[in-house]
Specification:
The protein is an all-beta fold and 110 residues long. The chain has no helices and ten strands.
C-alpha cells in the first residue's frame, strides 16, 4: 500500500454520509474516504448481518465495537471482538466474508 501525497487530513466520521449495502441478511452502512487507490471506511453491520459475497480484496480490518465472525471459504472461522484486527492480502489466504449476530462497527483500510 502506498499512500499518495495529500495534506494532513482529519476525518470526523460522523459527518461522512453513510451508504447502504444490503447483505444476504442485514445491512452494512459504509462511511468512506477515498485516497487515490486506498479506501478508508468506518463500516457498521446491523445485527444479523451476513455478507452477500465472498471477498478476495485485501484489508486491514479493526473491530471498534460489537462482535464479528470472519468466515473463510475454506471453512475456517475467526471471532473478533473490540480491539482485535485481521490483515489479509489481495487474492490471499482465502476468500472471506463477514457475519455478525449482534452487529459490529469496524474500521477498514483497503
Amino acid at each position: 500500500m502506498k499512500i499518495p501525497a495529500l495534506p494532513f487530513t482529519v476525518t470526523d466520521w460522523s459527518k461522512v454520509e453513510p451508504t447502504e449495502h444490503p447483505g444476504e441478511t442485514g445491512t452494512a452502512y459504509w462511511r468512506t474516504l477515498n485516497i487515490g487507490d486506498i479506501r478508508v471506511r468506518q463500516v457498521t453491520y446491523s445485527p444479523g448481518y451476513l455478507a452477500d459475497h465472498w471477498c478476495d480484496r485485501g484489508h486491514v480490518l479493526y473491530v471498534v465495537e460489537g462482535e464479528l465472525v470472519s468466515e473463510l471459504k475454506d471453512g475456517r472461522r475467526f471471532t473478533l471482538t473490540p480491539g482485535m484486527s485481521y490483515q489479509v492480502s489481495d487474492n490471499g489466504d482465502a476468500p472471506h466474508r463477514s457475519v455478525t449476530e449482534t452487529g459490529a462497527t469496524l474500521f477498514i483500510v483497503d
